């Protein structure tokens, strides 16, 4: 994979704008043949025009990014320049594939939470607290027993996810003699030795996917996007082989944020102005959507997430048609870290859980997607509109409803990314043979 994914010369700083320079040189030769005295004027005119066009594009085309000044927006401009020089016979999808294959993953902005690493001897309780404190869904696990000169594969034992810990806890506790339907279950769980004393290294088999999948600096955007979509990775570390450390962590949410910053650019508008239904979204029929009624126990909702291997599901009213909220694996943190949510509750339903969490957030945070109720869209909305909603609301999924507000489907970050690129035939060779689909209990 490394040989195929190295950065091409067309993406280096020196050669980045070579088509413009080639055309400029040709114009100069023609000018010399016509009138040597106008050579300087031709040069100045071409350079001024190019500079003016770039300045206009940077300042005007994306009101979202405030003048294309963000790292993600500048990255979008690199895609724009590559898009402009693609062969005319290529389809828009082929053009995007080619553009992303020409950009190294080292160009992706660094994750602000990169400095957070989980030590392998941390207890599950400590990991939950650390992830909740930094509002993270995942973090690298550093092997405390690794020598200082260890390679990255020995220095890290994987990427632990909030959802992975929750699912492991639920699996291990199913045989416990506690009240499995009420708040007592969670009270017993957070005070148990299972929660307090189990080390994150002890459950590495539940989140370390074999092989521990990471990007190298020589890999490109196309590889990254395919792994985050088709191959269901939620986060991808970028490793520095020389220093033996993780240099960056790229998540689905970070990619969608990059796309949101590219609004206004030609390549984005060509793709982003398409309606969801034109791209085959949502991918599942209403009858296939996994959901939970508001009067069902919230513990059942979390178990359903684990059994189905999904990150979230809608909470619907008794009719089963209209969504009233969303529950994700990340939300179980409130049951593990905020006792007052289930205090004095013999049994807490999914609807009561949503109301309790919203009440808690109003008092302690004041801003959260859970406070805004169900965030939805329509089939006729554009991909751009959905991307802006997902990014601005900082959510992982959005529900599709009809004119009457009835649930018709769900669109996730992965769904969006999967419609951006396609996998060329034989792109990964036999790399995934024997390891896909993922083992039932595997987590990245």
UniProtKB/TrEMBL annotation:
Chain intervals for the UniProt region annotation (Disordered): 39-72
Coiled coil: none
Domain annotation CBS: ranges: 105-177, 284-346, 370-428
PROSITE patterns reported for this sequence: CBS (PS51371)
Annotated keywords: CBS domain, Repeat
Pfam families: CBS
InterPro entries, sorted: AMPK_gamma/SDS23_families, CBS_dom, CBS_dom_sf
Protein name: CBS domain-containing protein
Species of the source: Stephania yunnanensis
């Amino acid at each position: 994979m490394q040989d195929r994914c190295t950065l091409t010369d067309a993406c280096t700083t020196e050669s980045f704008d070579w088509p413009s320079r080639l055309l400029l040189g040709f114009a100069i030769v023609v000018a010399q043949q016509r009138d040597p005295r106008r050579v300087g004027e031709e040069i100045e005119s071409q350079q001024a025009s190019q500079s003016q066009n770039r300045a206009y594009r940077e300042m005007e085309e994306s009101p979202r990014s405030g003048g294309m000044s963000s790292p993600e927006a500048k990255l979008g401009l690199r895609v724009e320049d590559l898009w402009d020089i693609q062969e005319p016979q290529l389809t828009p999808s082929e053009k995007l594939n080619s553009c992303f294959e020409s950009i190294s993953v080292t160009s992706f902005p660094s994750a602000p939470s990169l400095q957070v690493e989980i030590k392998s001897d941390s207890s599950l309780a400590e990991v939950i607290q650390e992830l909740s404190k930094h509002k993270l869904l995942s973090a690298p696990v550093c092997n405390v027993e690794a020598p200082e000169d260890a390679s990255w594969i020995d220095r890290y034992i994987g990427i632990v996810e909030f959802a992975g810990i929750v699912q492991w806890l639920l699996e291990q506790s199913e045989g416990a003699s506690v009240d499995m339907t009420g708040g007592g279950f969670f009270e017993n769980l957070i005070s148990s030795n299972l929660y307090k004393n189990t080390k994150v290294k002890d459950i590495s088999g539940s989140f370390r996917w074999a092989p521990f999948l990471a990007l190298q600096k020589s890999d490109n955007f196309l590889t990254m996007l395919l792994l985050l979509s088709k191959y269901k990775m939620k986060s991808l570390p970028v490793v520095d082989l020389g220093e033996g450390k993780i240099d960056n962590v790229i998540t689905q949410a970070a990619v969608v944020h990059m796309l949101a910053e590219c609004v206004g650019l030609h390549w984005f508008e060509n793709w982003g102005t398409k309606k969801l239904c034109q791209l085959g979204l949502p991918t599942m029929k209403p009858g296939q959507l996994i959901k939970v009624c508001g009067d069902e126990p919230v513990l059942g909702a979390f178990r359903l997430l684990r059994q189905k291997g999904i990150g979230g599901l809608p909470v619907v009213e008794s009719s089963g048609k209209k969504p009233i909220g969303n529950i994700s694996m990340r939300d179980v943190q409130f049951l593990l870290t905020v006792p007052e949510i289930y205090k004095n509750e013999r049994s807490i339903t999914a609807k009561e859980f949503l109301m309790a969490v919203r009440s808690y957030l109003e008092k302690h945070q004041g801003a959260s997607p859970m406070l805004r109720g169900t965030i939805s869209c329509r089939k006729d909305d554009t991909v751009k509109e959905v991307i802006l909603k997902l990014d601005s609301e900082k959510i992982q999924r959005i529900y599709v409803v009809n004119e009457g507000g009835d649930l018709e489907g769900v669109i996730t970050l992965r769904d969006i990314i999967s419609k951006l690129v396609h996998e060329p035939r034989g792109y990964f060779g036999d790399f995934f043979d024997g390891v896909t689909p993922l083992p039932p209990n595997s987590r990245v």
